[in-house]
Amino acid sequence: MSQVNRLGLGGCIDRTQTYTFTFNGNQYTGFKGDTLASALLANGVSIVNRSFKYSRPRGIVAAGAEEPNAIMQLGATEAAQVPNIRATQQALYSGLAARSTNGWPNVENDAMGLVGKLGGPMMGPGFYYKTFMAPASMWMTYEKLIRKAAGLGRSPKEKDPDQYDHYHRHCDVLVIGAGPAGLSAALAAGRSGARVILCDEQEQMGGHLLDTRDQLNGQAANLWVTQVLAELASMPEVLLLPRTTANGLHDHNFATLHERRTEHLADTAPDANQVRSRMHHVRAHQVILATGAHERPLVYANNDVPGNMICGAVSTYIRRYAVIPGQRLVVTTTNDDGYRAALDWTEAGREVVAIVDARPNPEGDCVKEARKKGIRIITGSAVFEAKGTKRVTGARVSGVDPATFTLTGTKEDLACDTIASSGGFSPVVHLSAHTGTRPIWRDDIIGFIPGNVKGLTPVGAVKGVYALDRILAEGAEAGSKAALASGFSVSGIELPSVTKQLESKPIALFQVPHEKPTMRAPKQFVDLQNDVTAAGIELATREGFESIEHVKRYTALGFGTDQGKLGNINGMAIAARLLNQTIPETGTTVFRPNYTGITFGAIAGRHCRDLFDPERYTALHAWHLQRGAKFEDVGQWKRPWYFPVGNETMHDAVQRECRAVREKVGILDASTLGKIDIQGKDAREFIGRVYTNKWAQLGVDKCRYGLMCKDDGMVMDDGVTTCLGDNHFLMTTTTGGAAAILEWLELWHQTEWPELEVYFTSVTDHWATMTLSGPKARDLLSEITDIDLSKDTFKFMECRQGQVAGVPARVYRISFTGELTYEINVQANYAMHVWKALFAHEHTYGLTPYGTETMHVLRAEKGFIIVGQDTDGSVTPEDLGMQWCVGYDKPFSWIGQRALSRPDTRREDRKQLVGLKPVDPKVVLQEGAQIVLDPTQSIPMKMVGHVTSSYFSPTLGHGFALALLVSGSKRMGEKVYMPMADGKVIEAEVVSPIFLDPKGVRQNV
Amino acid sequence: MSKVAVFNQCPGSEVMAESPLAHQSSVKGGRALIVTEHAFLGHLILRGQADNESLKSAVLSVVGVELPLQPLTFVLNETTGASVQWLSPDEWLLILPAGQEYEVEQNLRQQISGHFSIVNVGGGQTLLRLKGDKVFDLLSKSCVYDVHERNFPVGKAVATTFAKATAIIRRPNEQEWELVIRRSFADYCYRWITDAGREFDLTFTV
Amino acid sequence: MLHIFCPYCGEHREEAEFRPKGQAHIARPLSPEQCSDEEWAEYLFFRDNPRGIHHELWVHATGCRKFFNVTRHTVSYEILETYKMGEKPKVTAESLAKGGRS
Ligand SMILES: [Zn+2]
Questions:
Q1: What's a Pfam family this protein contains (chain B) (predicted)?
Q2: Quick check: B144 contacting C, CB < 8 Å?
Q3: Which residue is closest to A619 within chain B, CA to CA?
């Protein structure tokens, strides 16, 4: 049997289901219920990676989220590649293919390691800090080196075949963590009938109870777990989410939970309809934080050599996976928990060489049990150095005095292949810190506990409570209180009985002193993932970094996917000792989302590809598609940009469409324009206050163009508003401004002028708008309407109601092209019928569909602005030369009026709208090109404006542009210059922005 | 009356109407999630003061239901199928059987005095009816609002987000839910629902 | 993600349904043309940026479309109250300093 470290009995694994998997190309087998880590250990794989900076061989250290070394690249195919998966968190499945993230060409014989640890001297402590201080150009060089030497995982190059999604969830009580505290909390809350969500990041719920030596009700603890989970599963309002990491906790009890639904089954979801992973966005009334604690390793020389582990992980592998990760074990501990690993080891039938306890006189129950089993206990001592390079071969032990940070007594070398260390526990306070709350140091438990967060109750080990009976009781109490706070009546739960264990107090020891000074001793690792050593921290403090936040940035302690789970507290303790201050004086520790890495797929959910952003369609979209339109995004709308015929280029199509409108008739789908129905006796007064021009005299069925400013006097929108009745107006807005302008009107009405009797209702989607424009527009429309279109009855800037192609319609005679134009508005459900009726006469009149590009050319020829293109929030009506659209003597000081007399808006040298005519008629200026008056001046040149719109006009026969130019209105006839990036300088003449038909004859026919 | 321009916007039956989903096709699936478009209903937005007695009496006499003043509720006339929904303290949505909107608007205008407005918005929105065991899941995937039955009893109606668009969610009875979506976002909503409903083997009839 | 009580809808709703509109209680001067340039600039451009209690204008954009006021703590992000247009805040920096509600 190849699984050399698999025990014959025990574990929560299914030995009847053997899975074959590969690691770095080698084939192994494991069982259902294994993690990738337990399966690797079962097969005796010691080295799983190379370290990030020094390229040292690394083995598995932990059994959960805190694992710093076993970071894998998963995926049998290119499309299925996933980087940065912890082997300890990945369930084994048949066909799993994993590779080390680091290590080139392979982890056993790393090239970077052989060429003299190039990474080491290149990337000393302070590397990032110093690199970022260096010229930015050097970073590229470093980055290449880092990636080559270390590798940081890679993303797939092919399209991900899986689907991901989001759920929005709401509950009374969210319980994070399904260990003893979380289970009793969820049970107590669940029994009240409250809506409860219980999530846990592991494959199985139960946490520490799955591998504890403690018994509940005199039986194995996992029997109680099974029983509680069954009851919870039977409650309709309880949602159990295994394999679900609470990766962020935000304001007002909003949590994000990352659920992995098929990652434990295969590379990609076995069924295409299955969702691979899912983000739950949870709003909870109460949150119970039961995230437990991570065991802290001790910091000693060569503590990174494969075979160095934390004590709890040794127990977990033995008891939960029936895997024993070595032959001969030395335990080095500061507390009773370390003994459990030794007891489990010896009961599994392998040799415990010694338990090395830093405490002088440990007397707890498990100490006695170890003595009874004949295990050698060396008190007042610690392992200060591990021997070996690719695997531990021995442990060097000495007496230790933590108070003076010195070794005492005699030294002894013990032969072993595994060293398990325990320096106590660090509560997993990460989530509590996500909203900005700082954790609080507690001397008595030698760790940080969560700070106060409203609505958040930490229970159990995360609060520094480690006795199982108290954990269960506190969990139940917190669950009841949370349900009560959510308005439910509670009756509590009966708690299982726990056999009391007598514990002796732990001792505070973080770094074990070495016989040499830290700077000269073999490397003592604090953060294994980022290769941060005790010497690195010492160097940082020597260089003057006194705050732990600075030390972290200087050394990279706690960076990246690790987030300091094993190393942060040790690093702080070392810095505190060196600075001769306490840990709380050195600072506290801040954790940010995400708790562990999550894939972009889960973050994006369904909001990707063609669902990334809504695409808004008009009622005529299907026709445009069929006609082969090219589309332009205008806000979220898809608008036809141009309609190419045959192999036409965009330029050719636009020139043709322009000529059609000027010579015959064109049609534009203008349905995207914002439309707001305004009713009420004060509608006219209100409109007069928000537009710059006058509305008092506008008669029924008359239309008027209006400009809208903000109160700073800058143009924000424009459009035509029609008086449909004395108390009834229809306002149109720009396509992009529709929602904002409706909100703007409501803002003023609700906050400033609630006394005005007026109501606004959006009808943007209700009306479809078809703009028929060109000299033949009247002839064509008269074919299908009963409205009298004659010149003198239906005048320019008027509105009529009637039938168009049998559909009730409002027709507005307004023009954005300068040609004779009718805007036909019908209820959108009938738009396609009307559009097709017009096209029934396509060939008779040369009807040509045109898109937004042609619309832009035609309106620019007329000098009509587009808000947001020819304006940018710094342009007044006067800057646009639109004084004709400003009612200076209106009785109410309309929005923007007062600002027009501010000194800044009165400046003579403001930028003003002008036309530009390139001297070379073939040239089309670049939109955005900067304008200078003297092209011979030295760089940087004085820029006096920029081109806002620029096109080639088939009607004019030359390129033309609109521009904003300093004192532009006084520069008519002057020459200006546009220096381009390629060194060319383009010359143009300043002209009126109205290039065509300045008297408006064409639209008035 | 004459100060507001009202006209019958519906042509005769010889004109073919197209719903916002006319270009999309139905999806055949199971019964866990069944979505059906109910196009061409009459949609009116009524605005006015909640303490305007003529407003209340007009709605009662014309639509046959009490004007809902309780936020986030709507009332259904079981006989006609017409409904009136609270949208905000001075705004209601009337959904009427197809073709009745002009007549209802005229009748309301005759009976309401004081400051009010009525706007036909039927071309701008459409109604989807959802049923099946997985409606809760589909809505949970799509909306930030809590659609659990404890928070969303029959008779509730809420305007909220729907994916990256907006929608009105209504619960007319124990079995059914309604979504009122905007015309221009209808295609996006259709594609969203179809995609999110894949794992439930949805049926979508347009 | 804040959880905001809309005083018009009468329930807590998700932040995604709202839009913030800046500082609350900025009244437009009744006679703008009588304002000095300085007074007008004060109204247009100057806003408070307190560490602590802040009164803000929000709109329930995808819900009832009503504007309302929020008293929010800019450090803890706790929302101490929401109130309708035209109403005055009950919680202010002054009321808290005097030992009012926390
Ligand atoms: Zn609201």
A1: SoxG
A2: yes
A3: B20
